[in-house]
Amino acid sequence: MEAHIEKLTTIFRQVFDDEAIVLNDQLTANDIGAWDSLSHMLMIAQVEDAFSIKFSLREINKLKNVGALIKLIESKSAN
Amino acid sequence: MTFTSFGFLIFFPVVILVYYCLPGKYRGWFLLLASYYFYINLKPVYAVLLAGITLVTYAFTLLMARAKTEKSRKLLLVLDIVITLLPLFFFKYYNFVNTGIYSLLNSAGIRWPLPEISFILPVGISFYTFMALGYAIDVYHEEIKPEKNLGIVALFLSFFPIVLSGPIERATNMFPQFKGTLQFDYGKAVKGFQFMLWGYFMKLVVANRIAILVHVIFRDVDHSTGSSLFLGVLLYPIQVYADLGGYSLIAIGSAAVMGIDVMQNFNRPFFATSMSQFWRRWHISLISWLTDYVYTPLSFNLRKYGMLGTVIALMLTFLISGVWHGAALTFIFWGLLQGSFLSIEAITNKQRRSFFKKHDLVKKGWFIFISCVFTYLLFAFSELFCGPIDSMQKAFFIIKKIFSNFMSPLYFGNPSTIVFSLLGILILFSAEWQMEYHQAALPFLNNKNWIVRKLSYAVLIIIILLIGVFDGGQFIYFQF
């Protein structure tokens, strides 16, 4: 869990170009200036690479916040 | 019937009166009846098309829910999309594709002319087609359950405030409202009337007045001077904004009077400091539709290509946006231009952000102003390809003439036209300035002081009646 968040934080800081980003479950795109529909998919692709998992479009569409993303990563990594 | 027709002045109050006199459970059905009456008034036969698309959408969404396998669900979705798009293709793109094929065959030495079809595009078809598609795709992705009550689907697609030109609404927003208690809400109704009044101001005072000038300038580009053409280029985006933005506010306002929330369509676009920000403020319902149903699936499938995937997805999305506006090379070029602007911004995003941060520019007034002007000019020149001119050649001729013949006498028609245009623009931009930087609600109309509020309503109505142009023609987006 901790390791996942650490890895995800690195990706977020790199893709959204902000070293001050601290992840929490409630965090959404509204909280990060550079997180828009363009950078969103770049972030998703990096997450898939880093955790060696694959998302479906339906799963991505249903994500409401970072907490949901972490849960999804965990469920995928466990398999 | 349209919002600026005399008939609407009678239709709307009667609808509101009957709507609120009826018991709650009949209000939805009454709205459906009123909506079809509104649409039939334009041309009865087109209502058949609307009803047809409604039935197709209703049947396919229910079938999709019953399908046993993912494969058959997908097949049903594809079939639904094809059938729903057929009328749009037939009415909007048949002649364009036909001429293309004909000239292609002709260049190969084959003469095989197909008949030209001269139907008028059914008003609103581009809008309700997209709404129907959005609903079907949402059902496929399980964002919403298929609606068993045909009346709800029919009302969604024919709802009179939005049927002619949007905002392009979503089933996920409208269905729960139509199915809930349609109740009178004083706060919403007041806001609704304010929006309608401001919408009429935008359309009748600003858009229709500017239209007189822009029409003359672009009618004969050979004789218009470079400086006049530049004035036309500068004014046209404001005309389109006041036209579609005004229409949208009347739509949102009239729905709000009935207690129904319709999504925002514009958010003070000319205060955008970049093109990507501009496209989050301009024709929001179309762009968010394209983002959800075109851009996101495309960029998802192309995600392993990183920035290149983003650029391809952007270009294709805006190409579709261009084609949605019309079947002509100018619209295609317009879409590709917007796609290129956004791609360049996406590619240089990090560098720009760090440059702005290093020099502490983001909050500097002069920098915001220059960025707004630059964004406006980019959009204004690109808008030449989205409506006012019917050929690529003419559009490029205009741009060339502006730069080569800039120091030339300026044509501004009748002095009253330019004076009233500028007055309208001044009022519009002052109000938007106030809303952008100080308060969210319309100034004066929401003043704490009772007298100021009442006086503002009176002054606004007088301005509309005195300097509004009432025979200024139809809304621009009816042609799309």
Describe this structure in words.
The complex is a heterodimer of chains A (about 80) and B (about 475). Helices cover about 60% and strands about 0% of the residues of chain A. The longest helix of chain A is centred in the middle third of the chain and has 15 residues, at about 35-50. The two termini of chain A are about 15 Å apart. Chain A has a single domain, classed as ACP-like (Non-ribosomal Peptide Synthetase Peptidyl Carrier Protein, Chain A, Orthogonal Bundle). Chain A is mainly α. With about 475 residues, chain B is mainly alpha-helical. Helix content of chain B is about 70%, strand content about 0%. Chain B is globular, with a radius of gyration of 23 Å. The model of chain B has no long low-confidence stretch (mean pLDDT about 90).
Descriptive tags:
heterodimer; A: 79 residues; mainly alpha; Non-ribosomal Peptide Synthetase Peptidyl Carrier Protein, Chain A; 61% helix; B: 480 residues; 2 domains; 18 helices; 0% strand; globular
CATH H-level name of chain A... which superfamily? ACP-like
Number of helices of chain B: 18
Largest interface: A-B, 15 and 24 residues
Estimate the mean pLDDT confidence of chain B: 92
Distance between the termini of chain A: 15 Å
Give the distance, in angstroms, between the N- and C-terminal Cα atoms of chain B.
17 Å
Oligomer category: heterodimer
pLDDT averaged residue by residue of chain A = 90
Rg on CA atoms of chain B, Å? 23 Å
Total number of domains of chain B: 2
Strand content of chain B: under 5%
Beta content of chain A comes to under 5%
- What's the total count of β strands of chain A? 0
Helical coverage of chain B, percent range? over 70%
**CATH topology heading of chain A:** Non-ribosomal Peptide Synthetase Peptidyl Carrier Protein, Chain A
Shape of chain B: globular
